UniProtKB/TrEMBL annotation, chains A, B:
<protein>
    <submittedName>
        <fullName>TetR/AcrR family transcriptional regulator</fullName>
    </submittedName>
</protein>
<dbReference type="Pfam" id="PF17940">
    <property type="entry name" value="TetR_C_31"/>
</dbReference>
<dbReference type="InterPro" id="IPR036271">
    <property type="entry name" value="Tet_transcr_reg_TetR-rel_C_sf"/>
</dbReference>
<dbReference type="InterPro" id="IPR041583">
    <property type="entry name" value="TetR_C_31"/>
</dbReference>
<keyword id="KW-0805">Transcription regulation</keyword>
<dbReference type="InterPro" id="IPR001647">
    <property type="entry name" value="HTH_TetR"/>
</dbReference>
<dbReference type="Pfam" id="PF00440">
    <property type="entry name" value="TetR_N"/>
</dbReference>
<feature type="DNA-binding region" description="H-T-H motif">
    <location>
        <begin position="34"/>
        <end position="53"/>
    </location>
</feature>
<feature type="domain" description="HTH tetR-type">
    <location>
        <begin position="11"/>
        <end position="71"/>
    </location>
</feature>
<dbReference type="InterPro" id="IPR009057">
    <property type="entry name" value="Homeodomain-like_sf"/>
</dbReference>
<keyword id="KW-0804">Transcription</keyword>
<keyword id="KW-0238">DNA-binding</keyword>
<dbReference type="InterPro" id="IPR050109">
    <property type="entry name" value="HTH-type_TetR-like_transc_reg"/>
</dbReference>
Length: 194, 194
DNA sequence: CACCTTCTTGGTCGATCGTCCAATACGATT
DNA sequence: AATCGTATTGGACGATCGACCAAGAAGGTG
């Protein structure tokens, strides 16, 4: 019947606060998340927030990064799991269509992009996450024979995030329908004609 | 020495409030814009805000729509001014590189996307703006011989907004560098191989 | 047991918020 | 000059905010 230790309870509270922050950022927006709403959602008293985190912004920053990292790592793993580069891009786009642009994960990412323009710390962490994924995708495209893997990877990533943005306005849009148009990016480039 | 009439002063105040809202949304974020900050930026007393506008949200909504409409109409005019479809897309991408993703216009648009997910009125107005531009771009691509003009237009627009998002993290990214990869969208589609 | 560290409570502080309103100012109209 | 409608002022209302802190509770260790 040994209850949780002090350290375990502390970790639990921090995890609940991070989860509550990820939910609330998506629901009401980064700037609307307050310590008291966070505490209520996490089931703790509001005074605890500033015990476990240096500031509200530090909490939101950590919540955003920890929420985005598994998304990008999962997407990178999905690329490796595909049989070939065209299948990898196809699978990536199908995966994108599991998001509506207005779901918690999508909104967390977009909110984080905006917060990053006003928070140099967050911007550096997000740039690192995006650079890692771009390098991963770019390496795959280079192995497929492209001479411009960086540009192709940039286009695919921009198309994905932009489509999520547009899907939040119009749910009829679909990433999978763009697959035929992006498929040629996974084939060896053949000069200016391509 | 005839001074401005009452009606002229009213229009002037409304215009200053709209301009102040567009600036502040970009600077500090949609949810952080307050009536008192707006009044200070517009050079008026804070009580006036609720005389000219029904609510703060109504003011922000109108400011966002009025800020985005000229951007999209200008881009549509740019498409028509180009000599041919490939040139139009090329010019569009070059125009995008005039924005950094962290400039006032870009931030206003991205903030509006997020606000639209929580404001049905704003979402409908933005969807109409985007639909109009997509139809314009799609018609041009159809004239260029594509059998999938809607998908091609969706891809181009998603790539543009997504790249702006990514440029806010990494200023080295460039829309113009993606032009060679998008150029083939302006040529007649030739079946599954393309 | 006493002692230490970590965690939690409950509350205060000054500041800011959106909205509303009575009183006033001012151009236009009669 | 008297009147009307619009524009503006200055302040009020209750609510919420981020941050902070003294006091106490709880588990670990001597």
């Amino acid at each position: 019947m040994a209850g949780p230790t002090n350290a375990e309870r502390g970790r639990e509270v921090r995890a609940r606060l991070i989860a509550a922050a990820q939910e609330l950022i998506a629901e009401i927006g980064w700037n609307a998340v307050s310590t008291r709403l966070l505490a209520e959602r996490a089931g703790i008293r509001s005074g605890l927030v500033h015990y476990h985190f240096e500031s509200l912004q530090a909490l939101l920053r950590q919540a955003a990064v920890e929420g985005m990292r598994p998304l990008l790592e999962g997407a990178a793993a999905g690329l490796d799991a595909a049989p070939d580069p065209p299948g990898a891009v196809e699978a990536l786009l199908v995966e994108v269509d599991r998001y509506t642009g207005a779901d918690p994960a999508s909104l967390l990412v977009i909110e984080a992009y905006l917060a990053a323009t006003r928070d140099p710390d967050l911007r550096d962490r997000m740039r690192e996450l995006m650079d890692d994924f771009r390098a991963h995708l770019s390496a795959m495209l280079a192995r497929a024979g492209r001479t411009d893997p960086e540009e192709a990877a940039t286009l695919i990533m921009a198309a994905i995030d932009g489509l999520l943005l547009h899907k939040s306005l119009d749910a009829r849009l679909s990433a999978a329908r763009l697959a035929p148009l992006l498929r040629h990016l996974t084939r060896p480039s053949n000069g200016a004609a391509q």
